[in-house]
Write a structure and sequence with these properties.
Protein name: Glucoamylase (Glucan-1,4-alpha-glucosidase), GH15 family
Mean pLDDT: 93
Strand content: 25-35%
Oligomer: single chain
Structural class: alpha+beta
Low-confidence stretches: 1-48
Shape: globular
Number of helices: 16
Strand order of the largest sheet: 9-10-11-12-19-16-15-14
Number of strands: 35
GO biological process, one term: carbohydrate metabolic process
Length: about 750
């Protein structure tokens, strides 16, 4: 090596004659060989030894803790929240994954996060430091895969509570997690039982070990018996127990003392200064208020534990993941974005659970902030222009507004947002979309958001025709109530023209071979394949990038007209469509579920989609194909995510992350699940003038008890299987019309007993 280059590289550092025996290797990119650092009385010597190694050549050995991965093997995520704080509890029993068996984390409900940016994820330790430490006599214990017993939901008090049980022959520990109805607070209640015959000294330790990327001031206050983390916000850990003491930087100990049988300690995590409520109300008051809040919401109970569980976890998911301002990440830990379509469906789920205030706030957000000057709607938190507009969103939003008024009776809401509602209704009828020849709506983007870059031709998408037609039909009912007869007639007429062409036009109808199809081009030709013009732009190794003829068919969106009675569920087109869709079950895997569309045209890895599978379940329930419905529900119950209700967007053996985002939890699934229960099984369908009820009991279910709130009326609806079909309303038999019970809104509590065959 030339000395001049050496001196240039190291800024003129001189060679010392004092050489020690301590060497550390260095490497410069301009030279081959090692530089050795020699520590000599505060000076540094450098010299080379020829080699091919360089410092940090294996740079990829630095990794963050594997808990950042969302799709851990067999993982369950229990989510709880109240609109101010959101809490995630991870459970991953797979010992080979390297993931934490248990993990607790939380975040501000008004801010979207990735899993690794939640408040208790630590880059090197993941969620390991969120476990409880138990000192039992002179021995120390933590939860592990050997002493774990169970983790489950407990809805017995009305409050969604996560219970974690662990222990051994000496002791048992029960940890309970829940949030109050208000405040950025999480309660962690620890119950310890001494199984020995003699009393034992017991202490507990929790650490507040925050995300180092978000919090830098971390300390304990012995005076306040509190652990603090300050940074992006303020987070605290404290307890009600008098035996509390702090230690070091992170630790909050509780010395319970000598315990004969049982002891309980309540820990509190809080954000900002929301722990101030603890100075005004005690734990029992807060618990009782929260229990009352949940007890007033809609209930469903049947003789099937599978159904009961699926209803309860979905009801909890809807409430837990929407903020007080109506913000909601359409893909938790995945998208960090919002869609009008997802939120519109979410609103329906909230209404069917009795969360009217939350539904109104979300609708207000959608109309206030997510509708543009022309009536265009936001998706992916933006708008992509006319040709790539997701036109179904306009129809779904109109349908959500109509549904809100039907459930709440709040006609003033329509008056307040009349200008925006009018824009939403008129937007799809612009000439750029509504083809006067075919009477159908056109663009270059399909329902699942593939565009012309994916081979989608300019044409007519079934889901867009269906949703806009349905939305216009329903909003025309609303505006007629406001005396806008001319507009009502225009929208109803447009709805009818779109529907008629979609079902009956000899050239453009979206039916082939007797079943619904996804898409036709502007010439009326069925577009069966999506051939990307530039395969290199597709995600590498995805099916649509490498397969010769990526098929557009079949597609689960083709069952939407069956779900909402757009066509009779017993008609030939419905029967053949449902048979057609069966190709998507277990298409390229063996663990169940429906792909959203044919796997060959997927830009993502092939695998089943829970909310798309629920499309199929709802349509099959209308058609009384009960075996298919049970197959889907049992799959959702047993797949990982079924225990907690934290279902992923899709399930696959691999991910393409990057370039795709990590797979997260999709709230739309909860809305579809609740709709299956309330809209289909209970058959509870409020309309503007009357309440219609037409139950549809699944095979094997003989008894249902429910309480449903509509327009400030509590309807106790019990359904029982019988050899005769009739209904009792407050003890009096009412006549049925085609199996339907139609009641005016009475303004008082109603008790209905429905007997079905």
């Amino acid at each position: 090596m030339r000395r001049r280059k050496f001196l240039t590289l190291f800024g003129g550092l001189f060679l010392s004659k004092y050489v020690s025996n301590e060497f550390v290797k260095f490497k410069d990119a301009n030279f081959s060989g090692n530089l050795f650092e020699s520590k000599v009385y505060g000076c540094i010597d450098y010299f080379y030894q020829t080699t091919d190694e360089i410092p940090f050549q294996r740079f990829d050995t630095q990794r963050i803790h594997i808990d950042y991965i969302t799709t851990l093997p067999g993982v369950e995520y229990f989510l709880i929240g109240n609109g101010e704080i959101t809490v995630g509890i991870q459970f991953c029993k797979d010992g080979n994954s390297g993931a934490s068996l248990f993990g607790l984390t939380l975040w501000d409900a008004e801010r979207f996060v990735r899993k690794w940016s939640t408040f208790l994820y630590h880059p090197e330790r993941g969620f390991e430091n969120t476990k409880l430490t138990l000192q039992f006599g002179e021995e120390f214990y933590q939860l592990n895969r050997e002493n774990f017993q169970e983790i489950l939901w407990d809805f017995s008090s009305g409050i969604p509570i996560v219970k974690l049980k662990w222990g051994n022959e000496k002791f048992s520990v029960l940890e309970k997690f829940f949030v109050p109805k208000d405040g950025k607070i999480l309660f962690r209640v620890v119950e310890v039982s001494n199984k020995l015959k003699s009393p034992m000294s017991i202490s507990l330790r929790l650490q507040l070990y925050p995300n180092f990327g978000l919090f830098d001031e971390i300390f304990t206050s012995e005076r306040e018996k509190t652990v603090y983390a300050k940074g992006w916000t303020i987070m605290k850990l404290q307890t009600f127990h008098k035996g509390a003491r702090t230690a070091g930087r992170y630790d909050l100990w509780v010395d319970i003392g000598t315990v004969d049988k049982n002891a309980e300690v309540v820990y509190v995590y809080s954000l900002e200064d929301d722990d101030k409520i603890l100075k005004v109300k005690n734990f029992t008051q807060i618990f009782d208020e929260t229990s009352k809040f949940w007890d007033e919401k809609n209930k469903f109970r049947s003789d099937s534990e599978v159904l009961n569980h699926l209803f309860n976890v979905s009801k909890n998911g809807l409430k837990s993941t929407v903020s007080k301002s109506g913000k909601r990440d359409s893909g938790i830990w995945q998208y960090n974005m919002e869609w009008v379509r997802d939120d519109s469906m979410f609103v329906l789920g909230l209404l069917m659970c009795g969360f009217f205030d939350e539904a109104k706030i979300m609708l207000t957000k959608l109309l206030d902030k997510f509708v543009g000057r022309e009536g265009q709607t936001i998706e992916s938190s933006r708008w992509f222009g006319y040709e790539l507009t997701e036109l179904d969103q306009n129809g779904q939003l109109l349908y959500a507004v109509w549904s809100y008024v039907c459930w709440s009776g709040d006609f003033e809401f329509v008056k307040k947002f009349w200008d925006k509602i009018k824009l939403v209704a008129e937007f799809p009828l612009k000439d750029v979309f509504w083809d006067k020849n075919s009477k159908l709506l056109k663009n270059k983007r399909e329902f699942w958001e593939r565009t012309d870059a994916f081979g989608v031709e300019n044409g007519y998408e079934l889901a867009y025709q269906f949703w806009v037609s349905l939305g216009l039909e329903k909003v025309s009912e609303l505006v007629k109530k406001l005396g806008e007869n001319k507009l009502a007639q225009r929208w109803l007429s447009a709805s009818g023209e779109i529907k008629n062409s979609m079902l009956n036009d000899p050239v453009f109808k979206l039916i082939e071979d007797g079943h619904f199809i996804k898409r036709k081009n502007l010439n009326g030709q069925w577009q069966r394949y999506f051939i990307p013009p530039d395969r290199k732009r597709m995600p590498q190794n995805s099916a649509i990038a490498i397969e010769d003829k990526p098929s557009a068919e079949p597609d689960t969106s083709e069952v939407l007209p069956i779900i909402y009675g757009f066509v009779d569920a017993g008609s030939e087109v419905s029967i053949k469509t449902l048979e057609w869709i069966e190709k998507l079950w277990n298409q390229r895997w063996s663990y169940g579920g429906y792909e959203r569309y044919d796997s060959s045209s997927e830009p993502e890895p092939p695998g089943p989609w829970p909310f798309a599978s629920l499309f199929v379940a709802r349509a099959n329930l209308e058609a009384k194909n009960y075996e298919r419905v049970w197959r889907i529900l049992n799959w959702l119950y047993n797949i990982n995510g079924g225990k907690s209700g934290g279902w992923f967007e899709y399930y696959s053996v691999e991910q393409l992350t990057p370039p795709l985002p990590p797979v997260g939890i999709i709230g739309w699934t909860w809305a579809e699940m609740i709709s299956l229960f309330v809209y289909h099984i209970l058959g509870f369908r409020p309309e503007l003038e009357n309440l219609t009820i037409k139950p549809n009991l699944l095979s094997g279910v003989n008894l249902i008890s429910s309480s449903i709130k509509v327009r400030n009326i509590l309807v106790d609806l019990d359904i029982e299987r019988s050899d005769k079909m009739f209904a009792l309303v407050d003890g009096r038999e009412f006549a049925l019309k085609n199996g339907k019970l139609i009641l005016p809104y009475s303004g008082k509590k109603v008790k209905i007993k429905f007997f079905v065959k």
